[in-house]
Amino acid sequence: MATVVEADFTPGIGMTTTQAPFIEEAKRQGELYIVQPYTLYSEENHDTWRRLYDRMLPQWEKYANEHFLAGIANLCLDPNKVPLLDDVNKFLNPLTGFRAKPVSGYVPAFQFFDCLRNRDFPTTITMRMASKLDYLPEPDIFHDIAGHVPMHTDKAFADTLVRFGECAHTAAVIAKEIKDSDEQVRKLASIIKAMARFFWFTIEFGLMNDRATGTIKAYGSGLLSSYGELEHSIKSPDVQRYPVQLEWVVNQYFEIDHYQPLLFVVDSFDHLFSLVDELEIWMKEGKLDNVAPGEPLVNDEDLRSFLEAQLD
């Protein structure tokens, strides 16, 4: 199988979400981990990045937690053009060992979490359409690099991601020890659902107490990459904000196509790390075997990724 290479495509043809020939060809050939074909970004892609960054900067200054703001500064992102991941990694890797790893699309659950365990962050490299600046259900490079990666410069947060990745190994081990195939699938689906909900309500949409100001700030990437939802999450009276409780988080369904009506607040990244420890303990004790039904659905690909996991 030939590797999809940048030189086979016209420079500036575009890397727009759902409209990128390079990505479609990579998917057709079954390539998940790819190179970033930087010359293919169009002027519209760079302009979309610039507009997003320009709109988000004052929102970050008001509503983002201090660790994110430090991360943005440490990454030295260019506000005027789509970032080159090699440049991002030059600043990121020395700080926490993490690196952004370009992918062609969806990464099955075990592989995604295992990447975190190995301090790799699967990174979408397409850019949303210019007509969808405010909200995008699926990730793009702005969500991943401007939303997620600044947090990866913080050691405590990075260590929490690694710890969460280790939980995926625990889940795979537990699944392999269940002899009855139907029970194996049922329990594993429940565990994956619990892990997905935990990730959603913390890493993607988490809020944190700011002791210096006595306010709440955002650290979740889904909030930090959305112009409309970031302010909404902090200010709107329609949002319920509760101190995080693990039993609530793993049993709370979520939907991805609208602003979140319920969010959870942690005290610190040390607090978040301790919650991941507790999550793994609950997993081993069987407390995640029967979480509440509802979203997210667990697809066959995610189940297979755990059942077929190669553990070291």
Total helices: the number is 13
How would you describe the shape?
globular
- What is the name of the CATH superfamily? Aromatic amino acid hydroxylase
Please estimate the helix content: 40-55%
Fill in the CATH topology: Phenylalanine Hydroxylase
User: How many β strands by DSSP?
Assistant: 6
Overall average residue pLDDT: 94
**Sheet with most strands:** 4 strands, mixed
Oligomer: single chain
Low-confidence segments, given as residue ranges, are none
What CATH first level would be assigned? Mainly Alpha
Number of structural domains:
1
Topology:
Blueprint: H1 21-28, H2 43-63, H3 66-75, H4 85-96, E1 99-103, H5 109-117, E2 120-124, H6 141-148, H7 155-176, H8 181-204, E3 207-210, E4 215-218, H9 221-224, H10 227-235, E5 240-243, H11 246-250, E6 262-266, H12 269-285, H13 300-307
Parallel strand pairs: 1-2, 3-6, 5-6
Antiparallel strand pairs: 3-4
Helix pairs in contact: 2-10, 5-7, 7-8, 7-12
